[in-house]
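Bug #77: duplicate submission created two jobs. Keeping one. Sequence:
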Amino acid sequence: MAHSLEGRLALVVGGSGGIGAATARLLAEAGARVIVTHTARSAGAAASLADSLPGSGHMALPADVADTASLLALRDDVRVRCGDALHVLVNAAGFTKPVPHADLDALDDALIDRMFAVNWRGQFAAIRAFAPMLKASGDGLIVSVSSIAGRTGVGSSIAYCAAKAGIDVMTKSLARALAPEVRVLAVAPGVVDTGFVPGRGADFNAKIAASTPLGRVGRAQDVAEAILACATSLQYSTGTTIVVDGGRSL
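Kept job's structure:
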């Protein structure tokens, strides 16, 4: 590992999910003190994760990315517990619902709004809330979880593809706006073997693996390792989206 994260504070928003949990574990193994966020439904899983992480001082705290007030409350709580500086913010919260792209009526306004509230606005709102703490660290890092759907236009719904494209653009814009105190990156997975997309199982994964150059679908660990690299090895990178898809988008 090029750089240890000893003495650094990392916040993983959406830390109880597959990619978030794998990321929290790798950050803790690298020496960071890790906070994972959770909704009411995932409180138990998040608490168990925080308790299982190597090292000490880890915690699970509530937040809803679609509710800016809860993110501001989270920020204030983190300040009281941990001080004014945050070193790493990982935006791993997400939501989707499969909608065939040709079924325009099924992608109604409420679903579009929910898709953007969680997958774009929520990530921006988390960055907005914690930007002062990231700047205070003097060497802050933001990593947002995007998707190759933002580039290929192929994904669970057109709105999901659009929201993830927005993450890539936001990453570029904020990298300029927050430099030099804060670096801003994104990682774009392809198909990952988690429960994130409802209805996808072994048959779907086998089909995708057969048409992916590296011959398998992604694992949460693959994406987490890319996020860890952003924090440890890629010290001169900002404003870019790192593709982690086994060649799927080629």
